[in-house]
Amino acid sequence: MREGYEGTGPGAITPDGCAVELYSRLPVGKEPDIIAAAVPAGARILELGSGVGRMTHPLLERGFTVTAVDESAAMLERVRGARTICSPIESLDLGETFDVVMLASFLVHTGDREVQRGFLRTCVKHLAPGGSVLMQREGADYHSNVPRERVDPTGFTVRIVSSEPIGDGVHSVHATYEFPDAIWTQTFRVRPMSQEEFEEVLAESGLRVDKYLTEDGIWVRAVLADG
């Protein structure tokens, strides 16, 4: 387990505290529709941090070609119908480019600056001319509206129990997922960023915001700054 990351509950736990069985149970939200509306039909998508394929599978159903990348072989075992690659995102080098590179699950907020830069370098490296990077940011009140909970219509409860500053702009977040038959917890480190800070981080990597895809600014389409 990485320092500052921890997970508990039934089944395999990845180095960043994610429970494979938990992510296999989480429902698919509106994200695939947001993605499909923002990119060309039939696009080749490189999905970084795919996990068990929660977004991979609905994107395949919508006619996209998806290459799913995750550092957890246990996660990738749950992916069906897509090419899968087991690798850390920051060291990935496929020697090919894609119409769309996806960095969802708030991964751009990773607490380690060097890892964050590595994530964005990988996005740029694999982006075809005229392509776009789709990212998911934290909501504006993610760290201030704590503790909070959400009861999902499918019958489980998500709680963000705490978000504590631990220095250098990094927070330690503790979350729980309670199902009728099991409870999972996850502790992880993130770096909160304002919209201005987010855009500065992108610029440092040679990217710029093309469009905020949702009213809350959580989903973003970025392109090469010199494109």
List the SSEs and their pairings.
Elements: E1 6-8, H1 20-25, H2 31-38, E2 44-48, H3 56-61, E3 65-70, H4 73-76, E4 83-86, E5 98-103, H5 113-125, E6 127-136, E7 148-151, E8 157-167, E9 170-179, E10 182-190, H6 195-204, E11 207-212, E12 219-224
Parallel strand pairs: 2-3, 2-5, 3-4, 5-6
Antiparallel strand pairs: 1-10, 6-12, 7-8, 8-9, 9-10, 11-12
How would you characterize this protein structure?
By secondary structure, this protein is of the alpha/beta class. The protein has a domain at 23-139 and 193-224: Rossmann fold (3-Layer(aba) Sandwich), CATH 3.40.50.150. Helices cover 21% and strands 35% of the residues. The protein has helices spanning 20-25, 31-38, 56-61, 73-76, 113-125, 195-204; strands spanning 6-8, 44-48, 65-70, 83-86, 98-103, 127-136, 148-151, 157-167, 170-179, 182-190, 207-212, 219-224. A 7-stranded mixed β-sheet has the order 4-3-2-5-6-12-11, with helices on both faces. It has a 5-stranded antiparallel β-sheet with strand order 1-10-9-8-7, with no helix packed on it. A hairpin with a 5-residue loop joins strand 7 and strand 8. The protein is globular, with a radius of gyration of 17 Å.
The SS-based structural class is: alpha/beta
Topology-level CATH name of the domain at 23-139 and 193-224: Rossmann fold
Which shape, going by the Cα principal axes?
Answer: globular
The number of helices is 6
What is the element string, with H for helices and E for strands? Answer: EHHEHEHEEHEEEEEHEE
Regarding quaternary structure, what we see is: single chain
**Strand residue percentage:** 35-45%
Looking at this structure, what is the CATH superfamily of the domain at 23-139 and 193-224? Answer: Vaccinia Virus protein VP39
Instruction: Give the neighbour order of strands across the main sheet.
Output: 4-3-2-5-6-12-11
Architecture per CATH nomenclature, i.e. the level-2 architecture of the domain at 23-139 and 193-224: 3-Layer(aba) Sandwich
Instruction: Give the biggest beta sheet.
Output: 7 strands, mixed
What percent of the residues sit in helical stretches (DSSP H or I)? 10-25%
Which residues form runs of ≥5 with pLDDT under 50? Answer: none
